[in-house]
Amino acid sequence: MDDWVIGEIEILLDKKAAILRNKFPESRSVFLPENLLREARRQKNIPPGEVPKICILDPDGDLATYLSNQGRATKSPHWACYHSQLFLFDLDGVEMGILPCIVGSPYAVLVAEQLFVSGCQLLISVTSAGIIQVNEDARQFALITEAVRDEGTSYHYLPQDQKCTLPEHLATKLSMINDPLWFDALSWTTDAPFRETEE
Fold first, then answer.
1. Beta 87-91 vs 164-165: how paired, if at all?
2. Residue 19: its pLDDT value, please?
3. Quick one: DSSP state of residue 193?
4. Which residues are CB-neighbours of 139 under 8 A, at least 6 positions away?
5. Residue pair 115/126 in contact by the 8 Å Cβ criterion
6. Are the C-beta atoms of 114 and 33 separated by less than 8 Å?
7. Residue 143's closest CA among 151, 155, 135?
8. How would you label 162-196 residue by residue, b for 16+ Cβ within 10 Å and e otherwise?
9. Minimal CA–CA distance to 33: which of 97, 98, 118?
10. pLDDT, position 23
11. Which of 25, 88, 91, 148 could bridge 188 with an S-S bond, Cβ 3.0-4.6 Å?
């Protein structure tokens, strides 16, 4: 029997799915985002500097496009990521960063890791989504308080049995707001939306 056939059989017999094996979220990564950014700065001749403390991922790109069209957003001179653009804008006297078209978990965490080593302290993702269960009130925004992990990226960050939830200190602060514009929601993301079956 060929070695690859034996390997496939061993995978099938193993009770743990292949994607869950050999993941050590508590261990330090071999590849560091600061190293990638250092090389990008050198190659692209980008001066050192930090990004805003609050940044927004805008997967649909609508908000970033609106701000740019209104002349309210300018490209960051310090963002050294090979794969994305960071725009700066002012919100009530606070400098904010926004990155358009960051779609999918693998890409989002690649960019997020680079943002955090560049000075970002709070990263917000604002996007559109379909709703499976209709909300009972008229609120149009969903605040994701927990995510169903149906993609592979999160297993590199959290043990497989750990839930992905909104941090308690943020949930507490948000609960103090009277008449919020959002409703609490459970999010389900998948890397293969067109392969989801009725079952």
1. unpaired
2. 79
3. G
4. 180, 181, 182, 183
5. no
6. yes
7. 135
8. eeeeeeeeeeeeeeeeeeeeeebbeebbeeeeeee
9. 118
10. 87
11. 148
Q: What is the pLDDT of residues 149-173, one digit of tens each?
A: 888 888 899 888 888 999 999 999 9
pTM above 0.90, yes or no: no
CB-based contact 54:124 (threshold 8 Å): yes
| Cβ pair 8, 50 in contact under 8 A | no
pLDDT of residue 120: 97
Decide if 57 contacts 125 (C-beta within 8 A).
Answer: yes
* Distance between CA atoms of residues 146 and 62, nearest Å: 25
The percent of the chain in helix, strand and coil, each rounded to the nearest 5, is 30, 20, 45
- 8 A C-beta contact, residue 99 and residue 55: yes
